[in-house]
Amino acid sequence: MRAALRVFHFVSYLTFRLSEGLIRLVSLDCAFVLGQVGGELAYHILCRRRDLALRNLHLAFAGEMSDSQLRALNRRHFQLLGANLFAGLKASTLPHEKIWARVTANVPDERGKSGWLALISHTGNWELYSHLGKKFPEYQFGTIYQPLANPFVDRYFRATRTKSGIALFDRREQMLKCVQFLRDGGVVGVLADQGAGYAGLWTPLFGRLTSSSTLAARLSVRTRLPIVPIAITTSGRARWQMTVSDPIYPNDDETDVLTAKLNRVLEEQVRRSPVDWLWAHNRWKPLRPHFLFARDQRRVFLPANFDRSTLDPFRILIVSPISTAEAVATFPAVHAIKQGRPDNSITVLALDALANVWKNNPTVDRVLEWKRGESVFSLVARIRTLSRFDVSIFFTMNWKMSLAIWLAGIPLRVGRRTGINSWLCNQHPIEPDPTFDCVRMNLHIAQSVGADINAVPL
Fold first, then answer.
1. Which of 213, 260, 268, 280 could be bridged to 203 by S-S, CB 3.0 to 4.6 A?
2. Which CATH number belongs to the domain containing residue 406 in this structure?
3. C-beta of residue 200 within 8 angstroms of C-beta of residue 213
């Protein structure tokens, strides 16, 4: 298996190097245009990425743009993404003066000689960040990196970055060296727009909780050095605009406060040129298997001036059993799920005969009724019309519900590995002790997604 994976990585590396070699043969303008064509093809071929980007755009701008505007923005995003990827590869082969002749920059004339943190993101032609050392020769630049899964590509990129004068610091092993580098007057680039997994701080980005890296804030607080946000956006064919914002000083801010502030800065950068940001990245993805926070006491921070009523909810669709007794047996589990994160919104998909049972449950925000004999496609249409659900959790193994939810495109579907759920669900709890009763079985499912079941009233 390891040998096969190594062969796959090597073939991928060779393919990448071949593509890079072909791009070297054309001009920068030609590479940009070819990338646009490639991005257009990717928009039509990569359906899942296209739909993901559109969902993210709806999350950020649904109240500001129409659906047709968002679809046009999504298409243009793919075109520019391809153009900037190709142009970035070509730019790495050019002399630095030719690269910077294509970039208009609003760089402050007065710059201190002390170290600072450059807050960067996947906006526009982000490969140009690796050339900042030549633009600002008075500084020594470095960056914090996480090794790529493909060792051949990782080795190549590290060699390329080192050759361009960028000092590299492994996030897992070299943070002390990075701190010393900053204190000695160096500048360290830190990506601001990637998810940080279970270790991140859950704070709003475009009004929705997402795992955010605290690395830039922690380094700033520790070294007392400022954070300078930098964005590179597309201003024309193979032309870019570099915007250097005012520095953000740590002052007396705590890490959580500063991290939330940096998210707002990122929002402002994206809003200035929405087409340039990497929307096809699953920035708001729920972590698996524990997309709820209560079990591991994940850190959540809402700024003091944040209007909590504007927080985009995390929408969970609970699939109810079809008998009253079995439905009531899910109540403790649903209560634990509701308490699992502060932005939860619970909708229950229930047989019409059980609608009142669920409507009388204060934990539930909404009930979606279905009728015996109703077609799968009718259910799919009503689920899609009702809301954009993030997760579905099955407390029953009804084939019609499983198929309808799969066809409705809910991205995360949790259910026991039994019957049709084995195929149509993509997250399964470990099968519990067979002696569990219905209540305990349902609590086990809730616990498997991160709910704290210890404080649930039974």
1. 260
2. 3.40.50.2000
3. yes
Residue 106's φ and ψ, nearest 5 degrees, are -100, 70
Q: Two tokens at 244? A: 């250097």
Cβ–Cβ under 8 Å, residues 203 and 256: yes
Q: 236 near 29, Cβ under 8 Å?
A: no
Question: Are residues 252 and 146 part of one domain?
Answer: yes
Structural domain range at position 428: 313-448
Do 88 and 203 fall within a single domain?
yes
CA distances from 95 to 85, 126, 307 (A): 18, 17, 49
Considering its fold, how many domains does the chain have in total? Answer: 2
Task: Say if residue 145 is in the same domain as residue 210.
Answer: yes
Residue 304 maps to a domain: no
Q: Which of 338, 321, 339, 317 is nearest to 329 (CA)?
A: 321
In the chain the first and final C-alpha atoms are separated, in Å, by 47
| Same structural domain, 265 and 326 | no
Alpha carbons within 13 angstroms on the beta-carbon side of residue 272 total 18
Is the domain of 272 the same as that of 341? Answer: no
Of 276, 305, 328, the residue that ends a domain is: 276
For residues 262 and 389, state if they share a domain.
Answer: no
Contacts (Cβ under 8 Å, ≥6 apart) of 432: 440, 441, 444
Quickly count: other Cβ atoms within 10 Å of residue 58's Cβ. Answer: 15
> Looking at the structure, do residues 190 and 267 belong to the same domain, yes or no?
yes
Q: What is the pLDDT along the chain (458 residues), one digit of tens a residue?
A: 688 888 888 888 898 888 888 888 899 999 999 999 999 999 999 999 999 999 999 999 988 999 999 999 999 999 999 999 999 989 888 888 888 889 988 766 555 567 899 999 999 998 888 888 777 788 889 988 888 888 888 888 888 877 777 888 888 888 899 999 999 999 999 998 988 888 899 999 999 999 999 999 999 999 999 999 999 999 999 999 999 888 999 887 789 999 999 999 999 999 999 999 999 999 998 999 999 998 888 899 999 888 888 899 999 999 999 999 999 999 999 999 999 999 999 999 999 999 999 999 999 999 999 998 899 999 999 999 888 899 999 999 888 899 999 999 999 999 999 888 889 999 999 987 777 889 999 999 999 999 999 877 66
Single pTM value for the model: 0.89
Query: Does residue 166 share a domain with residue 31?
Result: yes
For residue 345, give the nearest of 381, 305, 378, 386 by alpha carbon.
386
Cα gap 273→77, rounded to integer Å: 10
Q: Is the dihedral of CA 51, 291, 145, 131 positive or negative?
A: positive
CA distances from 292 to 300, 315, 364, 401, 412 (A): 12, 12, 16, 23, 13
Asked, for residue 300, whether it belongs to a domain, the answer is no
